[in-house]
Write a structure and sequence with these properties.
Elements lengths: L2 E6 L2 E6 L16 H14 L3 E4 L6 H9 L4 E5 L3 H14 L9 E2 L4 E5 L3 H7 L4 E6 L6 H10 E11 L2 H4 L4 H8 L9 H17 L4 E11 L2 E10 L1 H9 L1 E6 L6 E5 L9 E5 L6 H13 L5 H13 L7 E2 H7 L7 H10 L4 E4 L2 E7 L3 H10 L2
Parallel strand pairs: 3-4, 3-7, 4-6, 7-8
Antiparallel strand pairs: 1-2, 5-6, 8-10, 9-10, 11-12, 11-13, 14-16, 15-16
Helix pairs in contact: 1-2, 1-10, 4-5, 10-11
Bound molecules: S-adenosylmethionine (SAM).
C-alpha cells in the first residue's frame, strides 16, 4: 500500500494514496475532518477517561482524541487487517518513543489498537467506556446495540450515519428495515432523517432501563451526527418514549403537523421519530468556548456552524421559503429577511443549519405565507 502523510488537527496521519477515497485499502475522508473537529471539541468538554473509536480505519479519530483532548485511554479498532497495521503505524508516528508493547502504548496516555469485529469488542468491554464513537460506512444500526452495552450507564455516545439516502427516503425499504421507520421525502427529509436516527436509539436503549439527553444533533455534508449523554434509570427511558412521535406533511401546501404518540393516530404518518430537543445550550456554549481556544483543522467553519446551531430555534421542522414561494406563486426572499419580519410580528423565528432556505418558527404556515406576501 503506497502511503502519503497528511496533517489533521495535531495529528500526522499516513493515509493510502488512491485516485478515489472509496478505492483505497484503508479509508480516509478529508471532508470528515470537520466531523472530527467537532468530536474533538466534544471530548474536550465531556472529558472521558476511556474512549472507543470502534471503526477506526487509519486511526485518525482516536489519535486526535488522544493528542487533543484530556482522554486518558483510547481504544482504536478496525476489522480490516490493513487498517489495523496502519493504526499501529500512525500511533507510532504520533507517540514516538513511548510505545511499551506492540499494540498497547503506556505513558501519560494509553492507546490500544485492536483488530476485531466492533460488536465482539464492545461486548467484551461491557460498560467499560465513558465515550463510544460509531463512525461506520453507512448506517450505525448494526453496531448500536453493542455500543449501548459497552458505554457506561452515565457515559456518552457519538454516532455518525452516512446513509442519508436511506434516512431521507430515497430507499424507503432500507429505512423500514434498518430503522423501523417510515421516511419522509421532500424538503423536510434531512431533519426527519436525523430525527428517525435518534428515534431508533430511543427504541433500542429503553430495554436497558436507560435514557439520554441530546447534546448535539446535526446534518452536514451528507451525513448525520449525534452526541448523546446517557441517563440512568427506567424513568429516563420512559421520558424518551414520551418524546417519540410522527410528522404529517402535505406536499401540495407545505403544511406539516407533528403528533406526540407511540402509535400514529391516522394514515400518512412519517416516523416514528424523535420530537425532543436537538441540542443542549450549555454544551453548545462549552463547545464554542473550546473552539475559540483550539487549533482545529477547520476552525472558522466550526465556529460559524456552532454559532448558527446555538441561535437555532429548537422546534421540530421548518418552512422552506423557496418551496413555499413556488407553491404560492410568490418570489422567494432571503431567510434573514423572513426571520426579521416574523420576529417583528411577535413570533419566534430563526434560520436552520439544515437548509439555507429554511426557517424555524412557532408561526403557522399561513403566517409565513403572509410575511412572504408582505415582502413582495
Ligand atoms: N472513523 C474513521 C475516520 O474518522 O476516519 C472512518 C471509519 S470508516 C467510515 C469505517 C471503518 O469500519 C472501515 O475502516 C471498516 O474496515 C471498518 N469496519 C467495517 N465493519 C466493521 C466491523 N464489523 N468491525 C470493525 N470495523 C469494521
Amino acid at each position: 500500500m503506497e502511503l502519503g502523510e497528511v496533517r489533521e488537527g495535531k495529528a500526522r496521519i499516513l493515509v493510502p494514496k488512491a485516485a478515489r477515497i472509496y478505492d483505497a485499502p484503508v479509508f480516509y475522508n478529508p471532508v470528515m475532518a470537520f466531523n472530527r473537529d467537532i468530536s474533538v471539541l466534544a471530548l474536550k468538554v465531556i472529558k472521558p477517561e476511556e474512549a472507543l473509536d470502534a471503526l477506526s480505519a487509519t486511526g485518525v479519530r482516536g489519535i486526535r482524541y488522544a493528542l487533543e483532548t484530556p482522554v486518558r485511554e483510547v481504544w482504536l479498532n478496525d476489522i480490516n487487517g490493513e487498517a489495523f497495521k496502519l493504526i499501529k503505524k500512525n500511533i507510532g508516528l504520533n507517540f514516538k518513543g513511548k510505545i511499551a508493547g506492540e499494540d498497547k502504548m503506556m505513558g501519560e496516555k494509553t492507546l490500544v489498537a485492536t483488530n476485531k469485529d466492533a460488536n465482539l469488542l464492545m461486548d467484551e468491554k461491557f460498560r467499560y467506556f465513558d465515550f463510544v464513537d460509531l463512525d461506520p460506512f453507512g448506517s450505525p444500526m448494526p453496531f448500536l446495540d453493542a455500543a449501548l452495552r459497552s458505554v457506561k450507564r452515565k457515559g456518552f455516545l457519538g454516532i455518525t450515519a452516512t446513509d442519508t439516502g436511506v434516512l431521507c427516503g430515497a430507499y424507503k425499504n432500507a429505512c423500514l428495515r434498518k430503522y423501523n421507520a417510515m421516511p419522509l421525502r421532500g424538503e423536510l427529509c434531512h431533519e426527519s432523517g436525523l430525527r428517525i436516527l435518534i428515534g431508533a436509539v430511543v427504541r433500542y436503549i429503553g430495554k436497558y432501563d436507560l435514557g439520554f439527553k441530546v447534546l448535539l444533533a446535526y446534518y452536514r455534508d451528507h451525513y448525520f451526527r449525534v452526541f448523546l449523554k446517557m441517563e440512568d434509570g427506567a424513568r429516563k427511558g420512559d421520558e424518551l418514549v414520551e418524546k417519540l412521535g410522527y410528522v404529517y406533511f402535505d406536499h401540495k401546501t407545505g403544511k406539516f403537523e407533528v403528533e406526540h404518540s407511540f402509535l400514529p393516530s391516522r394514515k400518512g404518518a412519517y416516523g416514528p421519530l424523535w420530537l425532543g430537543e436537538m441540542k443542549d445550550g450549555t454544551f453548545i456554549r462549552a463547545l464554542l468556548n473550546e473552539a475559540e481556544k483550539s487549533e482545529l483543522s477547520k476552525k472558522k467553519k466550526v465556529l460559524n456552524f456552532l454559532n448558527m446551531i446555538g441561535e437555532e430555534l429548537d422546534v421540530p421542522f421548518f418552512y422552506d421559503i423557496h418551496r413555499i414561494a413556488k407553491r404560492y406563486g410568490l418570489e422567494a426572499r432571503k431567510s434573514e429577511k423572513i426571520v426579521e419580519s416574523l420576529r417583528g410580528r411577535g413570533f419566534l423565528a430563526s434560520r436552520t443549519h439544515i437548509s439555507p432556505t429554511g426557517i424555524k418558527t412557532n408561526a403557522g404556515l399561513s403566517d409565513v405565507v403572509d410575511v412572504l406576501r408582505s415582502l413582495q
